[in-house]
Fold these 2 entries.
Entry 1:
Amino acid sequence: MGQAFAHEHVVIRRGVRSRLPLIVAVHSRALGPAVGGCRLRRYGTWQDGLADALRLSEAMTYKAAVAGLDFGGGKTVIALDRGTELTADLREAVLEDLGELIASFEGSYRTGPDIGTGPEDMVTLRRFSPYAYCAPEAHGGTGDSGGPTATGVLAALRAGARHAFGDASCTGRTVVIAGFGSVGSGIAAGLAAEGAHVVVSDVEQSRKDAALASGYRWVEPDQALLAPADILVPAAVGGVLDEAVVPRLTARLVVGPANNQLTEDSVADSLAKHGIVWVPDYVASAGGIIYALSRESENHAHEAAQQRVEGIGDTVGHLLDLARSTGVTPMRAAQQIAERRLASAASHVLDA
Ligand SMILES: NC(=O)c1ccc[n+]([C@@H]2O[C@H](COP(=O)([O-])OP(=O)(O)OC[C@H]3O[C@@H](n4cnc5c(N)ncnc54)[C@H](O)[C@@H]3O)[C@@H](O)[C@H]2O)c1
């Protein structure tokens, strides 16, 4: 991913109802319509929100390309400043503003929930455009994507285990899951059913209570990364893997949904040097988007969509094979797979 300006189209608009800045960044439509969720959060300045939209939309291009989706990358950011209180009325107003903006793309950019927005917010957007995914089922969407994302992480984890341990089974393995939320709890349930020793952690007392009630072992969040484990699953926040922590990890496999797990790209080299198999987060976490697009855009039934999510296992197996056979990190192998797809789409356009 480069530094040069590579985005196809960026719209920055002040909402007529809310007067808040709305940013839609479309990075690439080389493979198909751009997709990417709507982030609603506070930023120091709206320009910080723009920087986030540019970065996240580019990441979406890579995520969709490696996942084999015929979609490109985009992102919406609604940038709140420190002084603005997000009342229910203002929320509704800004979502109506956004609905109008999404409709103006006529399907060439499509959105869904991200940090600060949820399935219910998509109902408002859908009053203006059908291109808002993951609305609650009662409103014709597929709802919260945590379940399919967990299914995809489990498929990635098994493929990673085959590489790290020579065996895809997690029976008897100790797995530490850092973050017992929507995705982490689904991963824990899948692994426990398979006979893994599941250890979880979270910063919320209510999540600790839920984890203990489900019979999982518990580790305090500040000790989770370094707790004895075969497999570590970052399922909370990003930026958890840095140069200092890598040599101290006991896990031989790290795979989880948390976005932007590495503090910098060079950490991927350190992980490889220490013999730790790391599955790039955006590859492991693609289950939610694969499921929503299969169901809501391609009209596949649940089973077929689920099968496509399980296909993340093949994607991860292929990219780890490629990494091993060409002597590059899994991060680089994933970039190469994406870049190959994007280059081939670009050459088809030139041929046409
Ligand atoms: N939900 C999806 O479909 C999806 C898709 C792609 C990526 N992701 C990413 O996966 C991660 C988890 O998503 P989610 O939907 O389960 O979110 P969530 O909010 O439901 O759960 C996250 C959990 O992590 C806990 N947490 C926060 N800081 C922590 C810390 N330092 N240590 C331990 N626990 C901590 C929170 O209390 C919460 O229970 C996020 O990074 C998210 O961006 C989610």
Note: The chain has two domains: 9-61+72-139, 146-285+316-336.
Entry 2:
Amino acid sequence: MFIDNAEIQLSSGKGGPGATSFRQEKFVLKGGPDGGDGGRGGDVYFVVDKNSHTLSSFRGRHHMKAKNGAPGEGRKKSGKKGQSIDVVVPPGTQVIDVLTGDVLLDLVDDGYRVKFLEGGKGGLGNWHFRSSTNQRPSYSQPGLPGEVRTVRLELKLIADVGLVGVPNVGKSTLISTISNARPEIANYEFTTLTPKLGVVSTDDFASFVMADIPGII
Ligand SMILES: Nc1nc2c(ncn2[C@@H]2O[C@H](COP(=O)(O)OP(=O)(O)OP(=O)(O)O)[C@@H](O)[C@H]2O)c(=O)[nH]1
Ligand SMILES: [Mg+2]
């Protein structure tokens, strides 16, 4: 059994700021406040998909971020919510807090979708702050920041095939050409120090997992 892992920083979107705006109409002098609220920041979800077999899609990706909420506008118009993102992982993935080592999520069932980070709340527009003593408030709230969390994804995998051979014979080269794995390849022995997994697609629906194993003397 091999443990495939990837570290990634996830951030939800910031809330959009509320607007400071005053009603402007013909024949209305000094209209009242009408600044709308900022939109909520986008959320971060985990989605379990059995069509992704390994965590290789996270290689080289260090940060995934949902979109920020849009600012509020005049005429009490609220800003648009920031777009959420789905982090797609294979069944069996554990989400581990990098700082504490705690397992935050154990994602098992195909199709399961769970909210992981909540987007920041949008700020209130100045319209909310009118009162009998202040009929023209210039204050509107800023949006709240999103959440940021660095997690390690871990997947315990059973490879279908393992490449066994003496060092420097081209095992990594083979797996790099037939699978989605991109291991280091070099003309010296013991280039590969830890096993790397790759998915070999045989057709649109069938695939198997191949392991690149360090050279054995
Ligand atoms: N001539 C020739 N060279 C190859 C072939 N396949 C790989 N090589 C070269 O052989 C060297 C070693 O390749 P790797 O794929 O890193 O070998 P490895 O078995 O993974 O080596 P370790 O990880 O050190 O055990 C590289 O310089 C490759 O370019 C081949 O079919 N023919
Ligand atoms: Mg190698």
Note: The chain has a mean pLDDT of 91.
